[in-house]
Amino acid sequence: MNLISAFAIFFIIWWVVLFTTLPLGVRSQVEDDDVTLGTEHGAPTRPALLRKMLLTTAISLVLFGLFYLVTVTLGYGVDDIPRIVPRFD
């Protein structure tokens, strides 16, 4: 696996993990009883984006390490997944 492919796969994993970690620990303005005039009531009060980005990076590094282990070290790939639909040749 070359460096550009590894970076692209890590980038995709990072974005997927980011969207799964964004809702963690978010409290809305209504839940904190601190609604600012002119804003959406469901907007988060303290989104803690830096903490979530660091958590996303840590989780992504572990997942990418597992992906690298399975694909490069062990040699498994997409062709090794069993067929679900039979061939009708």
UniProtKB/TrEMBL annotation:
Membrane-spanning parts: 6-26, 54-78
UniProt keyword Membrane present: yes
Keywords, alphabetical: Membrane, Transmembrane, Transmembrane helix
Keyword Transmembrane helix: yes
Official protein name in the record: DUF1467 family protein
